[in-house]
Amino acid sequence: MNISIVIAHEEHYKFAEEICETINASAIQRGTGIARRTPEYIMKKIENRDAVVATVDGKFAGFCYIESWSHGKFVANSGLIVHPDYRALGLAKKIKERVFKYSQEKYPGAKIFGITTGLAVMKINSDLGYKPVPFSELTDDPSFWNGCRGCSNFDILERKEYKMCLCTGMLYDPAKKKTEEKYTFNKKVLLRLKNIKLALFLKKEKV
User: Fold this and answer.
1) Which of 11, 33, 109, 181 falls between 20 and 30 A from 25, CA-CA?
2) Nearest-CA neighbor of 149 among 6, 70, 33, 14?
3) Could you tell me the superkingdom of the organism this chain comes from (predicted)?
């Protein structure tokens, strides 16, 4: 099995449709919000060298892309996905580590953040040095939040005035990494928080 994780380039345009299909299928299967992207959007990320792709024996296996905001002061690693045929190989962590390192190289000094409902992604992020933060510590660039419109939970985010959603915000601040203690991931605590938010939002919808 030949596994390759590289900065995506023109050769990988052919995977754009499959990447979108895999992201959409995962959103349906998990029943959680994942913002939908078009093949054109994915190809633009590849063209700009703002994506990492994983292949196994030349076949698409995983993907993640970079978005920058506030003139490069904030960077998001988004759209992390692993094809179902290649899960349980540790690819998600390897892809995330590669795109995280590449983000620091391409946008030195930038704060790197992400929002996710996935506990596995939260664990990977915490291992890299991210910490859970309120949305107020993330970029206030409206174009970032507009990117959430393809998510099934966008109505919740909108009602909460972009201050809260089912997602958890996580931030890596290179300026603070040497002065702050590393965040210790606690799956039970984060799962409880996620369930509390879900219960509150659903309760208010029924009222």
Assistant:
1) 11
2) 33
3) Bacteria
Cα–chain center distance at 27: 13
Domains of the chain: 3-182 (3.40.630.30)
How would you classify the pairing of strands 168-172 and 111-116?
antiparallel
**Consecutive H or E run containing 82:** strand 74-82
Residue type, 194: K
Condensed to tens digits (0 to 9), the pLDDT of residues 92-150 reads 999 999 999 999 999 999 999 988 888 888 889 999 999 999 998 988 888 888 878 87
Assigned token pair, 70: 């506030």
Number of neighbouring beta carbons within 10 Å of residue 71: 8
pTM for this one?
0.80
Phi/psi at 21 (5° precision): -65, -40
The Cα–Cα gap between 13 and 40 comes to 9
Instruction: Give me the sheet containing 51-56, strands edge to edge.
Output: 3-7, 51-56, 59-69, 74-82, 111-116, 168-172, 131-133
* Higher-confidence position of 205 and 142: 142
The Cα–Cα gap between 150 and 154 comes to: 7
Q: How far is CA 171 from the centre of its chain?
A: 11
Q: What is the maximum span of the chain, computed from C-alpha positions, in angstroms?
A: 54
